[in-house]
Amino acid sequence: MAFQGPLYIGFDLSTQQLKGLVVNSELKVVNISKFDFDADSHGFQIKKGVLTNEAEHEVFAPVALWLQALDGVLNGLQKQGLDFRRVKGISGAGQQHGSVYWSQDAEGLLGNLDAGKTLEEQLRTAFSHPYSPNWQDASTQEECEEFDAHLGGQEQLAWVTGSKAHHRFTGPQILRFQKKYPEVYKRTSRISLVSSFLASILLGRIAPLDISDVCGMNLWNIEKGAYDDRLLQLCAGTFGVEDLKRKLGEVPEDGGAHLGKIHEYFVKRYGFSRDCTIISSTGDNPATILSLPLRPSDAMVSLGTSTTFLMSTPSYKPDPSTHFFNHPTTPGLYMFMLCYKNGGLAREHVRDAINEKLGVNKPANPWAEFDRVMLQTPAVGQKMESDLMKMGLFFPRPEIVPNVRSGQWRFNYNPEDGSLKESAEGWNEPFDEARAIVESQMLSLRLRSRGLTTSPDDGLPAQPRRVYLVGGGSKNKAIAKVAGEVLGGVDGVYKLDVGDNACALGAAYNAVWAIERAPAQTFEDLIGKRWHEEDFIEKIADGYQKDAFEKYGRALEGFEKMEAQVLKQEESRRLANK
Ligand SMILES: Nc1ncnc2c1ncn2[C@@H]1O[C@H](COP(=O)(O)OP(=O)(O)O)[C@@H](O)[C@H]1O
Ligand SMILES: O=C(CO)[C@@H](O)[C@H](O)COP(=O)(O)O
């Protein structure tokens, strides 16, 4: 008879889909089920998982969509024959910063779910507001300015909360919500993050916020390990700090906290055991660093809808252009993060323009031409050393780092004399843009992470030891090749065997650790002992190559100047339009 040991589910509630991934105690993946929001949902006018109100730069997602998706994923696992009785623990990961506003009826409805109905059918009135502001939202410029000013400046806010104010961060979002919909805010009984929303549904009562994900709000004082009352005061306005504290609830210190047993709904409808434990759910990026025993010298690049760069580090060095979060499982460690809005969708724009120009219609692999053209294009578009370097910024959506409006900028840079000119002269559009967009994204990562990398060996420049690619784009070996040339990584560029499911895998590992750990055993220790590199990762590209790394080092100087010039131009434009 087959091994009948315990199983663990990790959910990933991201921008464009919900995934459920099942592992056993040996960390092997046994089932995956996916619900694609655009393709598989019904009744929502969403595009790429979200709705937009361009006039106010709002981006938001219908919460009911996620309820439909959760039943959808569980149905999918059931069809695959998963024996739900074996599932001992469930953890999850949610797209970061999004907030869910619960109505006064929420606790009653959650506690009395009827297994004969879908979640969507019975929880429609559990929300005081039907939408969750999405991380791509850019409607909170005014609120961000208030947050940054409140503690004396961006540096101070970054020092206290790990980040300066960002449009998508939940504190500025709640402040705007509270001002825009005061009556709804008043009627809101609780506020969840997307991660704790997911845990709440599984528990059948409102779950606490997670110790790492709470750092994505601009409200949590990382050093004190508590909400910062000054920031809560700003956020809550006339409604007061105590009311907001009640709405947000407690935050357990333990990222592997056992929140309680799964609700009867899931026992009756899907056949879960009553003994199945719900573990704290974290943010999608914190969960991603849990998909392997990451060392402080390694870097992860998540090529999802957003591009994120992640490191686990013992040093807390906050800066207005980066993010620090509490590590999701290990006190004393932090997660360093860079986050870009213009990741996968921006690359898709270039891909589609190339396919259109070439008259390629609905190809089996939509990335084939993008990859071919990118690999044929020389680094920074320089056919000869004496050519000018081509570089640009490609932002179909307003960007986070640097904080600029949507737009495209193309430049020519002369590394010999350091001169830089905004010009598309010599650019063969859209073909040169395939390499330029990937280089641009990678150069930005190298620029902003260099303070955290160290020299891996005598005589080698500071760089990551390994670069792990995860997320949808990690399937792409051409992108991996350019990533290695720009970022380095002496040990090479790797992808996880689970491909674009790293985030769900990290959540599942969190559940394994939370249930099976010995007293005081760390996540790294437990997962490290069970993790077999040869089974779980694949080297897909070389990392450090001296000549390429040095060339991109020269390009980096031009890139930094280019960003500064665009920011200056934009500032003048903004002032002129005031
Ligand atoms: N072969 C590929 N090459 C490059 N990018 C890809 C490829 N396959 C998928 N992607 C990108 O992956 C993105 C989705 O990534 P994923 O991690 O699944 O998304 P999410 O942000 O919802 O977690 C898509 O926007 C797409 O651009
Ligand atoms: O805003 C951030 C991180 O700060 C995003 O990374 C979101 O967490 C959404 O991620 P994906 O859906 O792209 O995985």
**How many discrete structural domains?**
2
CATH class of the largest domain: Alpha Beta
Count of helix runs: 21
Helix content: 25-40%
Say which molecules are bound, naming each kind only once: adenosine-5'-diphosphate, 5-O-phosphono-D-xylulose
Largest sheet: 7 strands, mixed
Mean pLDDT over all positions: 96
Choose one word for the global shape.
globular
Estimated structural class: alpha+beta
Instruction: Please give the number of β-strands.
Output: 24
Q: Are there runs of 5+ residues with pLDDT below 50, and where?
A: none
Quaternary structure of the protein: single chain
CATH superfamily of the largest domain: ATPase, nucleotide binding domain
Which radius of gyration do the C-alpha atoms yield? 23 Å
CATH architecture of the largest domain: 2-Layer Sandwich
- How is the CATH topology of the largest domain named? Nucleotidyltransferase, domain 5
Distance between the termini: 73 Å
Query: What is the strand content?
Result: 15-25%
List keywords for this structure.
Xylulose kinase; 21 helices; seven-stranded mixed sheet; cytoplasm; ATP binding; 578 residues; 2 domains; nucleotide-binding; Nucleotidyltransferase, domain 5; single chain; binds adenosine-5'-diphosphate; alpha+beta; binds 5-O-phosphono-D-xylulose
